[in-house]
């Protein structure tokens, strides 16, 4: 009988991750630091270093969240504060650049009218949750469901978007994915994934909930197949829609979802 290898300690995982980081193997480093945080969510070094790694991978939102958390955990550590300032500055510059680029994507954005008609005419309607849902997000989700009228909606979610109200959704990490029909992508935080090329939607709709032009830019490019088809954009609120350089459909949130999401 083969004796299984001992599970590495947290210290060993941090050392492995740091060696990968120094060696430029950023994905490996991110995975090892994330493994540490699964065991110890309050581990300062893993939080701080994963924030740095994500910054170097170009994942500014993740980097910002992690470095803000690191500073909360250890406000006395100057390098963490310095790295947070670097990411905040880079994010501001990225935001300014993306605002300049967004108007160029206007030809890829199609007008959306009467969501119920679109959903009712499609072979299927899929709603894919691509960010953690706040209470306000949940209200917008319910508004979208209501706007789809009598159409039967199949629910999907990125595994990082887990929430008890979307327990009915199929976790995309199990290998299944939407196919055909109208595919409504709620949120811009997470990329749809490698399955997107196999999804073959009749129509893709992107629901924007936050003023994050860099993520919006990425999602429009992905959902359009890098410009091979148009994408419908729906905005959660008039103020957000008015800030975009192309026509969008406005979603008005319901007062709030019921406890079971029905």
Please tell me about this protein's structure.
- There is one protein chain.
- The chain has 262 residues and is an alpha/beta fold.
- It contains ten helices and eight strands.
- The chain has helices at residues 10-22, 26-39, 44-56, 60-73, 78-101, 115-121, 135-147, 196-199, 213-223, 238-242, and strands at residues 109-110, 125-129, 153-157, 170-171, 182-186, 203-208, 231-236, 249-251.
- Strand 2 (125-129), helix 7 and strand 3 form a beta-alpha-beta unit.
- The longest helix is centred in the middle third of the chain and has 24 residues, at 78-101.
Which class of the largest domain in CATH terms? Answer: Alpha Beta
Query: What's the multimeric state?
Result: single chain
Q: Tell me the helix content.
A: 40-55%
How many domains? The number is: 2
**Arithmetic mean pLDDT:** 88
What is the makeup of the main sheet? 8 strands, parallel
Instruction: List the helices and strands in order.
Output: HHHHHEHEHEEEHEHEHE
Shape: globular
Fill in the CATH topology of the largest domain.
Rossmann fold
Number of helices: 10
Rg measurement, Å = 20 Å
List keywords for this structure.
262 residues; alpha/beta; Serine Threonine Protein Phosphatase 5, Tetratricopeptide repeat; Rossmann fold; 2 domains; 10 helices; disordered C terminus
Summarize the structure.
The protein is an alpha/beta fold and 262 residues long. The chain is 45% helix and 13% strand.
């Amino acid at each position: 009988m083969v004796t299984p290898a001992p599970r590495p300690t947290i210290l060993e995982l941090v050392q492995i991750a740091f060696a990968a980081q120094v060696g430029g193997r950023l994905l490996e480093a991110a995975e090892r630091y994330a493994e540490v945080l699964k065991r110890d969510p309050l581990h300062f070094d893993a939080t701080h270093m994963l924030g740095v790694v994500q910054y170097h991978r170009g994942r500014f939102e993740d980097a910002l969240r992690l470095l803000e958390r690191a500073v909360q955990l250890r406000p006395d550590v100057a390098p963490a504060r310095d790295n947070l300032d670097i990411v905040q500055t880079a994010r501001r510059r990225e935001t300014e650049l993306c605002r300049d680029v967004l108007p160029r994507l206007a030809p890829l954005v199609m007008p959306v009218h009467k969501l119920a008609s679109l959903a009712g005419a499609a072979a299927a309607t899929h709603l894919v949750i691509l960010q953690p849902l706040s209470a306000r997000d949940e209200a917008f989700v319910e508004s979208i469901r209501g706007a789809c009228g009598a159409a039967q909606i199949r629910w999907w979610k990125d595994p990082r978007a887990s929430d008890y109200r979307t327990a009915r959704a199929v976790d995309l990490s199990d290998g299944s994915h939407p196919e055909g029909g109208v595919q409504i992508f709620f949120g811009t935080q997470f990329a749809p994934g490698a399955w997107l090329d196999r999804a073959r939607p009749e129509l893709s709709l992107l629901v924007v909930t936050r003023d994050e032009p860099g993520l919006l830019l990425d999602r429009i490019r992905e959902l359009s197949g890098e410009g091979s088809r148009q994408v419908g954009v729906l905005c959660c609120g008039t103020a957000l829609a008015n800030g975009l350089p192309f026509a969008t459909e406005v979603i008005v949130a319901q007062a709030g979802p019921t406890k079971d999401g029905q």
